[in-house]
């Protein structure tokens, strides 16, 4: 009953509700909403609260600024910060440099084999970045790396005497590998941006006699600039928060980034105050960048937004097909073909750097991983339990939250939407520091259990799920529910019978996306696992420290196979929706 | 007198009651029955993962009712994990093996270990076991140098640590990390004692590829990623040589660090009986011979024979480890080393 609501709630001006729900006499969704606000706040804000508190506290529990002072004056912290900033900025530039032309070529030209190219770009999107880094150690190690071996052989050079073609153990090598698995973000932004920009402007320019390249630069480019900028920022953020790639490629060269530095502060005895103080600037940077990104995307006004534009006449590439395809071949070759190839090869040989002769072939790595290695079963079991739990609970959670906030039917819907989106600004490793601080002391000691890792995964995946379900729900007009309710159905009934089936493919997609995101997670897990709660990703990370590349390759292939099986499931479900 | 004995027995019984369950030293049928109920043993070890799994497989074959969970990491990482877990009251580890012998002194001081002397250890030389029975050397290895025989001729190969400062080795060296590996820490400590920090400073300017584990460096030179290994496990070199990899061991002329790698049971072990069955098993002549033959480690068991082709310890100039002297310096060594070579 509206009039039964406490005065403070009326006074704060509960958000406007649609007519139908305003007419209800009692709305049980208000306490539900309140409960979910509390739940999400605990998930998202509690770790951040402890992060802030710990960063200002010394070992004796007193207020201090020492940790920040140390961070801003000690070169061993400033150097990783500088490295992180310039490498991430460079990754962003490289991503735009390769993904902008790729996006344009796919959207606006008659490039052959687009479907295959899109599939391969999707493949590099879902490849866990640390797998790519593993593969590139085998490809681009300065002396034994296969590419360098081919290079030496081709030019009759000798390793160690001539300079290698590439040295992957370097800041440059790290930037390159980060770019290979980050560019799909920019590509998606550009391709989607171009889909929204009507082709008429470009056609007009063509009719007026402009050569194709001038049209692309003077007309198309300005129209997608917001998408490019947004893509750049996302690429920057992605590379800044990666842990596996710098740990695998930069650490051996003695180069630290912010994430590897935070990780090293967690080596026993952990320096928690310092770790918290180092984490917060990283958090601040992501918040600022995301704010910038949403401002840029929000100002997209000058590109016509009004559904998908009419089909654009595709530009004939003619002889330009060759360089265009060469660009795709290079990028996709480096991110998919070569890495997958070298992992497959390594999984089936005794000596990964040796020639592919018959005497080098073996199934030993597979036998070891699946029959002998006692970590395999535990790690697979943990990874799947975590994936199933995070995907199931996460999907239910975001569905309720998205429903409450998209329908704007209840008090707190804005808050819900904020809380569900906020984790996008929290780098995985920073979230892990916060969770560690929150759950290693009473009342709730979760460290050492799968629960703390589960919380990390659910929190991390909230924004992805919320976006998916939110979009699916927005597509279902509330009138359908209203109609069923006029016929006497309860809200729950309407939800289950009407809305549920309509967003089913959205639910399945969300579930699978969270599952994939969880089974590949490394940067938060690395701080939260214990021997009993190891996942496949940290097991692989451990194997790297003893250079056991064969077993790493076997686990990589297993992980990729599972991921692609799930991606093709999404594909089936979404196609069914279209049909 | 009788009363005195009775009183003594009573006192003993009371002490036992206070101390909790008393465990037999040898594997009795009661212990085995209790162990089978516990079902498994959790083993944290720093030995190469494949060697660890060979041991685990042999254990499962002998005791089908018992499972072994192998948790392998570098000694220093094992130490950190246990410290982290114990500070959060997580008691997961049953039996531990680390190549940083000073860890056992620390754990003993903390009263985290359970005294237990496997029957075979009675016959070990005194310097390789704790007088109060808290730990004993399960295996030993040497921290050796080595090179890839395809990339360097025997006549050009380095013969000792000082040779590595020659400019011709720039960009060709690989070394493991004392912040991760106990063998590397023990060996690096021996090098510091012998040649001083000055030597490491010069070495750090040679473009050394910094890996983590002493199990990783032999694999690195075997693959040809680097030419010369500054430190690495002798046993991994034996494994590579047995697998026909093009590598050769160098016992540095200045001396080769001898690294003992003890084993112990934790007092708060979640599977106390299985832990004792496993610890006894680890020290049997059969397993000591197995790890020596297939894993390439050195054994201190009097019945174990070095497989043919291995340089006898007696002919190598050894630098013995000194865990008690190293213990207070560990943090400092790691810090200074990291400043020179990175993480």
The average pLDDT value of chain B, as a whole number, equals: 92
CATH fold topology of the largest domain in chain A: MetI-like fold
Helices of chain B, by number, come to: 13
Provide the structure class of chain A: mainly alpha
> What is the SS-derived class of chain B?
alpha/beta
Taking the sheet with the most strands of chain B, its summary is: 11 strands, mixed
SSE ordering of chain A? HHHHHHHHHHHHHHHHHHHHHHHHHH
Radius of gyration of chain A from CA coordinates: 26 Å
Q: Domains counted in the coordinates of chain A: how many?
A: 2
Largest sheet of chain A: none
CATH class of the largest domain in chain A: Mainly Alpha
Outline the secondary-structure elements.
The complex is a heterodimer of chains A (579) and B (343).
Chain A: H1 7-11, H2 19-23, H3 29-55, H4 66-73, H5 75-108, H6 114-126, H7 129-140, H8 146-154, H9 171-196, H10 200-207, H11 212-241, H12 244-249, H13 258-265, H14 272-298, H15 321-347, H16 364-372, H17 374-406, H18 413-421, H19 428-438, H20 450-474, H21 478-486, H22 491-502, H23 504-519, H24 525-528, H25 536-545, H26 549-578
Helix pairs in contact in A: 3-14, 3-18, 3-19, 4-5, 4-14, 5-9, 5-11, 6-9, 6-15, 7-9, 7-15, 9-11, 10-11, 11-14, 13-14, 14-19, 15-26, 16-17, 16-26, 17-18, 17-20, 17-23, 19-20, 20-23, 21-22, 23-26, 25-26
Chain B: H1 2-19, H2 29-38, E1 40-45, H3 49-62, E2 67-72, H4 75-87, E3 95-97, H5 102-109, E4 113-114, E5 136-148, E6 173-175, H6 182-195, H7 197-204, E7 209-210, H8 216-223, E8 228-233, H9 234-242, E9 247-250, E10 256-266, H10 272-282, H11 285-294, E11 318-319, H12 323-326, H13 330-341
Parallel strand pairs in B: 1-2, 1-3, 6-7, 6-8, 10-11
Antiparallel strand pairs in B: 3-10, 4-10, 5-8, 5-9, 5-10
């Amino acid at each position: 009953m509206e009039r039964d609501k406490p005065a403070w709630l009326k006074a704060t001006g509960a958000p406007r509700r649609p007519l139908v729900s305003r007419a209800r006499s009692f709305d049980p969704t208000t306490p539900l909403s309140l409960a979910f606000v509390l739940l999400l706040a605990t998930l998202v804000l509690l770790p951040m609260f402890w992060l802030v508190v710990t960063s200002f506290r010394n070992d004796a529990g007193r207020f201090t600024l020492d940790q920040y002072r140390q961070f801003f004056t000690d070169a061993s912290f400033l150097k990783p910060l500088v490295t992180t900033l310039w490498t991430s900025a460079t990754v962003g530039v490289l991503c735009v440099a390769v993904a902008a032309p790729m996006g344009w070529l796919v959207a606006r030209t008659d490039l052959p084999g687009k479907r295959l190219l899109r599939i391969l770009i999707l493949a590099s999107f879902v490849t866990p970045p640390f797998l790519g880094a593993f593969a590139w150690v085998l490809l681009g190690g300065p002396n034994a790396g296969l590419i360098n071996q081919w290079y030496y052989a081709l030019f009759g050079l000798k390793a160690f005497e001539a300079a290698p073609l590439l040295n992957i153990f370097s800041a440059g090598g790290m930037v390159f590998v980060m770019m290979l698995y980050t560019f799909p973000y920019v590509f998606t932004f550009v391709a989607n941006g171009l889909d929204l920009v009507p082709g008429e402007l470009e056609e007009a320019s063509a009719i007026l006699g402009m050569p194709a390249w001038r049209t692309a630069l003077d007309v198309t480019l300005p129209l997608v600039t917001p998408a490019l900028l947004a893509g750049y920022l996302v690429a920057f953020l992605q590379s800044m928060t990666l842990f596996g790639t710098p740990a695998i490629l930069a650490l051996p060269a003695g180069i630290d980034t912010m994430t590897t530095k935070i990780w090293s502060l967690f080596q026993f005895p952990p320096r928690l105050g310092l770790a918290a103080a180092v984490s917060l600037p990283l958090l601040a940077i992501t918040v600022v960048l995301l704010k910038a990104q949403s401002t840029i995307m929000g100002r997209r006004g000058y590109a016509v937004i009004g559904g998908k534009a009419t089909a654009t006449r595709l530009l004939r590439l003619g002889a330009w097909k060759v360089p265009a395809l060469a660009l795709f071949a290079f990028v996709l070759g480096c991110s998919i073909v070569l890495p997958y190839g070298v992992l497959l090869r390594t999984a089936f040989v005794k000596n990964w750097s040796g020639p592919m002769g018959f005497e080098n072939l073996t199934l030993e790595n597979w036998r070891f991983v699946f029959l002998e290695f006692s970590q395999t079963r535990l790690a697979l079991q943990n990874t799947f339990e975590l994936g199933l739990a995070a995907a199931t609970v996460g999907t239910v959670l975001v569905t309720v939250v998205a429903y409450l906030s998209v329908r704007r039917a209840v008090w707190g819907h804005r808050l819900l939407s904020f809380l569900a989106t906020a984790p996008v600004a929290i780098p995985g490793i920073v979230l892990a520091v916060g969770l560690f601080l929150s759950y290693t002391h009473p009342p709730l000691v979760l460290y050492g259990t799968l629960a703390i890792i589960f919380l990390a995964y659910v929190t991390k995946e909230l924004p992805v799920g919320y976006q998916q379900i939110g979009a699916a729900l927005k597509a279902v007009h509330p009138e359908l529910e209203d109609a069923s309710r006029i016929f006497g159905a309860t809200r729950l009934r309407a939800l289950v019978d009407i809305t549920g089936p309509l967003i089913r493919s959205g639910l399945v997609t969300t579930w699978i996306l969270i599952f994939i995101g969880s089974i590949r997670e490394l940067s938060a897990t690395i701080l939260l696992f214990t021997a009993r709660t190891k996942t496949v990703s940290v097991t692989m990370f451990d194997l790297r420290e003893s250079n056991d590349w064969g077993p790493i390759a076997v686990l990589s292939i297993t992980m990729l196979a599972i991921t692609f099986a799930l991606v093709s499931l999404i594909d089936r479900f979404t196609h069914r929706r279209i049909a | 007198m009788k009363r005195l004995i009775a009183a003594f027995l009573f006192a003993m019984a009371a002490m036992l009651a206070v101390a909790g369950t008393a465990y037999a030293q040898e594997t009795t049928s009661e212990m085995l029955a209790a162990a089978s109920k516990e079902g498994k043993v959790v083993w944290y070890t720093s030995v190469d993962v494949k060697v660890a799994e060979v041991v685990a497989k042999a254990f499962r074959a002998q005791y089908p009712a018992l499972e072994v969970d192998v948790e392998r990491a570098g000694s220093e990482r094992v130490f950190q994990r246990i410290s982290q877990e114990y500070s959060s009251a997580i008691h997961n580890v049953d039996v531990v093996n680390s190549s940083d012998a000073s860890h056992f002194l620390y754990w003993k001081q903390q009263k985290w270990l359970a005294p237990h002397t496997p029957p075979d250890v009675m016959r070990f030389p005194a310097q390789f076991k704790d007088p109060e029975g808290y730990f004993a050397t399960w295996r030993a290895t040497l921290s050796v140098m080595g090179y890839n025989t395809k990339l360097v001729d025997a006549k050009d190969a380095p013969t000792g640590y000082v040779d590595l400062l020659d400019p011709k080795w720039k960009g060709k060296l690989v070394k493991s990390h004392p912040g991760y590996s106990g063998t590397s820490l023990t060996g690096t400590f021996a090098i510091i004692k012998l040649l001083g920090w000055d030597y490491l400073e010069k070495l750090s300017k040679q473009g050394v590829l910094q890996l983590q584990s002493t199990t990783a460096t032999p694999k690195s030179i075997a693959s040809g990623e680097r030419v010369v290994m500054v430190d690495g496990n002798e046993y991994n070199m034996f494994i590579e040589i047995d697998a026909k990899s093009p590598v050769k061991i160098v016992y540095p002329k200045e001396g080769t660090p001898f690294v003992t790698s003890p084993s112990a049971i934790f007092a708060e072990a979640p599977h106390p009986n299985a832990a004792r069955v496993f610890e006894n098993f680890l020290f049997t002549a059969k397993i000591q011979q197995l790890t020596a033959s297939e894993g390439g480690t050195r054994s201190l068991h009097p019945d174990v024979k070095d497989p043919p082709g291995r340089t006898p310890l007696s002919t190598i100039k050894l630098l013995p480890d000194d865990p008690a002297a190293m213990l207070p310096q560990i943090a400092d060594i790691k810090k200074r080393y990291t400043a020179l070579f990175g993480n």
